[in-house]
Amino acid sequence: MPLMKTHKKHFTTVALIWAGSLIPFFFAYMIALAPQQKSKKQVRWQLAETKQMYDFAIRASQEETKIKSNEEIENLRSKLKDFVVDFEDSANLIFDISQIANEKKVDSFSIKGQEAHRGSTVLDLKHLQENRIDINFTGAFNQFATFLNSLERHQPVIFVDNFKITRSARGDSSHKVNMKLAAFVRKRQVSND
Known about the structure:
By secondary structure, the protein is an alpha+beta fold. It is built from four helices and five strands; from the N terminus they run ααβαββαββ.
């Protein structure tokens, strides 16, 4: 029994010494080592980001990547022509719409460009502006539908903002139609020569 008491006493003493030394080691870890772990993670993240930028720069400097990028730019420019009218051709847009109305044989056709209001566009674009066009005509519903279909297929794209059809008071099929259209026009480039 006395041997057991001595072992128990030694065990308790060793446990107290370990517990007493663990507390200062824990605080030393929290003060000195934990911030270094956080800093180490941040440095790894920055290294990965820098490596990614380096890899991108290497790929960008390769001739194949340059060719592919130029092809993509040209492809996007050609797609832009489907949606944007050059400033010089913006007057032809009204003529094109008048031609479509002529082909569809609508009656009492009138077309008028609207003054672009500064606050009317959602985006303040640097190189594009929005041209708004107001048209009125009378015609049967079939004429309206074919006219609308032709406008939707027009190149460059003409957006139908809204339309209003007023039923004929005489009971015939000539209904009054008011449409508000929009088109994107490349702004006139001012040279600073």
